Amino acid sequence: MAYIANDNKSNNFWILIVFMINPFLSLILSVKNYFSDYSKNIVWLFCGFYGFTFYPAKASMDSFRHREDFLSWYMKNDLSLNEFFDKLYGNSRLLDVFLPLLKYGISRFTDNANVFYGILGLLFGYFFSRNIWFLLNYAKRKLNKYEILSICIFAVTIAPWEINSFRFWMGAHVFVYYITKVLLLKKNKYIIGMATAPFIHFGLFVALLFYFVYRIAGNRLRIYVYMLFVSIFFNAISASQVQALIPKTSITQLDKKSDSYTSDEYIEGRESTATNLNWYVTLKSKPLYFITIFIILFLYHKKRKELLKSPYLSYLCFTIFFMAVSYMLMNAVPTFYRYFRMTLLMFYGFLFLFFLSENSKWYKNIYKFHLIAALFFSIIEIRIWFDSATVDTLVSNPVVSMLYQTYQPVINVIK
Question: What is the pTM of this model?
Answer without folding.
Answer: 0.88
